[in-house]
Amino acid sequence: MAPPRRPRSGCRGIHVPGHTACLAHLADADRDAYLAGLTPGTDIDHCGTPFTEPLLDDLLNALRDPATGHPRLGEARFSGAQFSGEARFEHVRFSVAAVFGDAKFSNAWSLYGEHGDARSEQVQFSGNAWFSGAQFSGDAIFGGAQFSTRAMFRTAGFASGWFGPVVCAGEVDVSLARFETPVTMEICGAGGVLLSDSVAIGGDVTPALRHSEPRSRRPGLPPGGHCLPGPLQSWWRNGGG
Length: 241
What we know:
It is built from three helices and 26 strands. It is mainly β.
């Protein structure tokens, strides 16, 4: 992917190739032309872009694979993007890396519609998934997602008391994450759960666990996977480390 042009001032969104504005601020005709030129599996870079619900829907629809009926992305960069309203990622396939570092989700990121307005039901992450530094203002519900390699939430911020379930064939990194309230976590990582640094909960920094407990009966748990049971704060206080 060629290095993108950075915005000059004001908007932080990466410029669409060949233009001097991000996807959100392109003229309608230019945006339509860009979207029409996308094909399933295309690498995209929309770092810093403010996404409304219609804009995100338009982007994902442009990347929809007619063979499956689902959007399929190549390398997807959304670092620093802002998602307002519903952020629906149902059935999206991330074929390479998915980078959401420092992104902001103003509603819940959810794989189940009943838990919030940001959904990613049955999302597939074939490459590394980066959510490091991302800010989740609602519940972070990941049930139904499939992480094939690593899922990284290092330094991410969570306003809700729920995180998960995260099921990953590789390592799950939640070190240095910050939670505004006591939190229940469900994490299953066949490659291990990295909680080797401190985690902040409700303003208090709690030494994170270096331990995960096998729960082979957990539905959807990969072979050899490990789950970190919740509520996590109670687990810590009861000496589970």
